[in-house]
Amino acid sequence: MVGAPDHPVFTLTDHFGNQITEKDFHGWFQLVYFGFTSCRVVCPRALAKLSGVLEELGDESARWIKPLYITVDPARDKPETMKAYLQADYPRFLGLTGPEAAIEDAKRHFRVFAQRKSNPADPDGYQIAHTAIAYLLDRNGNYLDHFPDATEGAKIIERIRFHFAH
User: Fold this and answer.
1) Looking at CB atoms within 10 Å, which of 76, 135, 157, 164 has the fewest?
2) What are phi and psi of 127, to 5 degrees?
3) What single-letter DSSP state applies at residue 17?
4) Within the chain, what is the greatest distance between any pair of CA atoms?
5) Phi and psi angles of residue 117, each rounded to the nearest 5 degrees, phi first
6) Residues ≥6 apart with Cβ < 8 Å to 32
7) Where are the beta strands (DSSP E) in 44-108?
8) Any residues with CB less than 8 A from the CB of 88 and at least 6 apart, and which?
9) What pLDDT, in 10s, does the model give residues 112-164?
10) 3-state SS of 104-154?
C-alpha cells in the first residue's frame, strides 16, 4: 500500500525522560500520530478525536492500545513540554521526542511529511505543515491500518474493532 509505513523502528525519549524504542510496545497495538504541541488546530482536533475513540472503545479494548504522539518539532517539544501538553488534555497519549536525526528517522519509517514554514504570527516565527494521519500497528509493530484526518471517529472505532477481531 502506498504511504503505509514499513516496520517502524525508532529510538526516542518519552515525556517522562525515558529512552524508548519500538520494542517497548511489542505486545500492544499502537495508535501513532505525528504532530507538535504548538499546533493550533489540526493536532488538538486529532488528539481529541482519537482520545474520544479510545474512550468509546472502553477500557477492555483500549487497554490493549498504546497511543503515541510523536513530535515533528523536537526543537520546541522537549519531554517536559510534551508531558504538560498531553497530561492536561490528552492523558492517554505518551509523547515521544528526541534529537532531530531520531525524529527524521521515525518520520521516514512512517512515511510522514513535515516541513517548517515561516509564520511571523507564531512566537517562534514558524509553524509546521505535516501529515495528519493516525496509524494503527499490530502487537508486533507491523502496519494494520491508517486513518486520515477526515476519518470520522465512528469509522475509526469500527476499523479498530475489525482488526481486534481478526
Assistant:
1) 164
2) -125, 175
3) S
4) 49
5) -130, 135
6) 8, 67, 68, 70, 110, 134, 135, 136, 137
7) 65-71, 94-97
8) none
9) 888 877 777 767 777 787 889 999 999 999 999 999 999 999 999 999 999 99
10) HHHHHHHCCCEEEEECCCCCCCEEEEECCEEEEECCCCCEEEEEECCCCHH
Per residue in 134-146, pLDDT (tens digit) is: 999 999 999 999 9
Say which residue the cell 523502528 belongs to.
9
28-141: CATH number: 3.40.30.10
Half-sphere CA count of 57, side-chain side, radius 13 A: 27
In terms of Cα–Cα distance, which of 103, 116, 28, 23 is closest to 70?
103
- Collapsing DSSP to helix, strand or coil, 20 comes out as strand
- The pTM score is 0.91
